[in-house]
Design a protein that fits this description.
The structure is a single chain. By secondary structure, this protein is of the alpha+beta class. Strand 4 and strand 5 form a beta hairpin. Strands 1-2-3-5-4 form a five-stranded antiparallel sheet, covered by helices on one side. The protein has one domain: Histidine kinase-like ATPase, C-terminal domain (Heat Shock Protein 90).
């Protein structure tokens, strides 16, 4: 994926296929040289975004596909997730404000942290809806790791 190479994957928009797809993408990115210190961040953000597509964009669909294209460069990674499901509310990326925690264990929310995590873990997010297609772009910048060791790419 360095020097213009890409990793592309398409899979059915189901929980099990999404889980397998995320695992495949994570493995492929690692094999192509994604710095180890960014792998967990990428996997979490990727999982949150893809699970949102399956759960929300395709909520009213019985048969649908998710397409993912990854472009890995020396100091950054861009992931483009495409689907033909429902658009994001307001045709824009949610702000990523986490849900209130409440004061007791029973008041803990079931969700409401996905977009917060995506915002926290990525360097840039871009969304567009064109001709019935959603395109969510996630960018991850990765300068040298905190320990100062250079990544090999």
């Amino acid at each position: 994926m360095n020097n213009g190479k890409c990793l592309d994957l398409s899979f059915a928009a189901t929980e099990s296929e999404a889980s397998s797809g995320i695992a495949q993408l994570s493995l492929g990115l690692a094999e192509q040289g994604l710095p180890a210190h960014k792998a967990a961040d990428v996997k979490i953000a990727l999982a949150e975004a893809i699970n949102n597509v399956v759960e929300h964009a395709y909520a009213d669909f019985t048969s649908a596909q998710v397409q993912v294209r990854c472009r890995l460069h020396n100091n950054w990674l861009e992931i483009l997730i495409s689907d033909t499901g429902n658009p994001l509310p307001g045709f824009r990326v949610p702000d990523g404000i986490p849900a209130a925690l409440g004061s007791t264990r029973d008041e803990l929310p079931e969700g409401g942290f996905g977009w917060f995590l995506i915002h926290e873990l990525t360097s840039d997010i871009h969304y567009e809806r064109e001709n019935g297609c959603n395109r969510l772009s996630l960018r991850f910048d990765f300068p040298d790791p905190p320990d100062g060791k250079k990544t090999s790419q």
